[in-house]
Amino acid sequence: MTDLTRYQDALAIQGVLNSARTIAIVGLSNNELRASYFVGYYLKRHGYDVIAVNPRETEILGATSYPSLRDVPRPVDLVNVFRAPDALPEIARDTVAIGAGALWCQFGVINLEGAQIAVDGGVTVVMDRCLKVEHARYAGRMHWLGFNTRRITARRAGLQ
Predict the structure, then answer these.
(1) How many CB atoms lie within 10 A of CB 155?
(2) In this predicted model, what pLDDT tens digit does every residue of 134-147 receive, in sequence order?
(3) Contact yes or no for 16/31 (Cβ under 8 A)
(4) Which among 42, 53, 52 is positioned nearest to 137, based on CA atoms?
(5) Each residue of 35-44: pLDDT tens digit?
(6) Structural contact between residues 102 and 76, judged by C-beta atoms closer than 8 angstroms
(7) How far from chain centre, in Å, is Cα 50?
């Protein structure tokens, strides 16, 4: 088992969340049922500039999708990764090359070689954490028992 605690520091996570405004999501899907789409949609709704990076799509979430990070024509604060772990070293090299400040690897995207490439390039790394969940936690939209609905019961009132 790999010790990932150095990539899951609460202060580093909060720092990334508070400083990032432009987020490139590598592996963002145009399929509304995929986790990457839901995270991208959520981040857009919360005021972030979301850039899609997916070579198979030309447009996602109403904006241009780029084939790679190096093709993105504007500065990126944070790179969020929804790809297989073996793709991470190359994504980390691209993250360093474009001058992004942070690399965020979603649940299960664990590759220590990629993390070290990013760290060596001066990039903050968060690994095996969900950007949406962490944003909800630190933005006050999640209660310790789950999403804060301001209700005492979890019983649903039915369809409205």
Answers:
(1) 7
(2) 998 887 665 555 55
(3) no
(4) 42
(5) 999 999 999 9
(6) no
(7) 10
